[in-house]
Specification:
The protein has 15 helices and no strands. It is globular, with a radius of gyration of 23 Å.
Length: 334
């Protein structure tokens, strides 16, 4: 995915305040392993233990490098730029008359800044865990072992575990609250930025490949399927399918609703993976024939996910405004 790196550093700092702690944990494990090495008792045993220690350090270092590589492998972790702009544009159309003028006027701004979380992630790697959730690390569908209340989940699994497996639904809850506060205070410039950032996270929750450890097909030998489904199909065929979002509606629990969106997206994974295998088996390559076949097999799912994303983005905006007391929005922004 091509990204616009002209976003401000303040956005990167704002989105990257949390830290995964993965590097520190790996370093601590290595340090503890060294401290557990017993004292040398003879020259020959010293040499033997020295080789063993170096081998152990090398093995641990290999594991650390592998872990870091795995965590850093998510080069594309959301819909492509075309999809994000489509989602935001359609989301504005779902809003009621009292709220829509503010968002209508800021369509261009919202389209420009919906990718800010991704740009911040490029500059601040610790932002990465806010963009996905590996639901399949928590047992079987519908993954009821994972509490949806963050503090409860931390107490059960630890903060480190949650950060390694992703925080996307909770991040949506955080930015829903931030947008509510911006509306309450009448900080309209801040509100439109928070609305764009929230839209980015909400749209990511509807991408099936943001909900699985197999985020790019590497576990099923289908590398790059996330880009083929979430970017290439849309770039090739978006002019042929209409999005049909529903009118925005109030969301009672923003975090819980985000979990439901992730679950719904996750349920489409097997069908998409099978369609990819069948299309590639028929075409023998990722060529025009493959993409035509892949689109025919997945178009209904793709359109549904994008339409649902648009509905939810509008609904999150409406919910924040409603929770703020439905303040009168400015009709003209300068």
């Amino acid at each position: 995915m091509l990204r616009n790196f002209r976003r401000s550093n303040s956005v990167a700092a704002r989105l990257g305040e949390q830290s995964t702690g993965v590097g520190a944990s790996a370093t601590d494990d290595l340090h503890n392993a060294e401290n557990r090495t017993p004292p040398f008792r003879s020259k020959s045993r010293s040499k033997s233990r020295s080789h063993f220690t170096l081998a152990a350090i090398a093995a641990v270092a290999c594991v650390v490098v592998t872990l870091v590589a795995a965590l850093g492998a998510r080069d594309t972790i959301a819909w492509g730029a075309t999809a994000q702009k489509m989602i935001v544009g359609k989301a504005v159309d779902t809003l009621p008359p009292d709220l829509r003028p503010f968002f209508d006027e800021n369509r261009a701004f919202l389209s420009l800044h919906v990718a800010d979380p991704l740009d911040a992630e490029a500059k601040t790697p610790t932002e990465r865990h806010n963009h996905f959730i590996y639901l399949d690390r928590y047992g079987r569908f519908p993954y009821t072992t994972l509490p949806r209340v963050y503090k409860t989940a931390v107490n059960k699994y630890s903060k480190s575990k949650l950060e390694q497996t992703g925080l996307l639904p909770w991040q949506i809850g955080v930015y829903s609250a931030k947008l509510t506060t911006s509306f309450q205070l009448g900080h309209w410039d801040e509100a439109k930025l928070n609305a764009a950032i929230l839209a980015g996270y909400v749209s990511e929750a509807h991408d099936p490949f943001n909900t699985t450890e197999n985020f790019d097909g590497h576990l099923t030998l289908q590398n790059g399927i996330n880009d083929r489904f979430g970017s290439t199909l849309i770039d090739r065929f978006s002019s042929f399918f209409p999005l049909r979002p529903n009118d925005a509606s109030f969301i009672a629990d923003p975090t819980d609703h985000a979990f439901e969106a992730c679950l719904s997206a996750h349920s489409a994974l097997e069908m998409i993976l099978l369609a990819d295998r069948n299309a590639h088996a028929a075409a023998k390559a990722y060529n025009d024939e493959y993409f035509d076949h892949f689109y025919n097999l997945t178009a209904a799912t793709l359109i549904r996910q994008l339409s649902d994303a648009s509905t939810d983005v509008g609904s999150y905006w409406l919910t924040a405004w409603t929770n703020a007391g439905k303040p009168a929005v400015p009709q003209t922004q300068h």
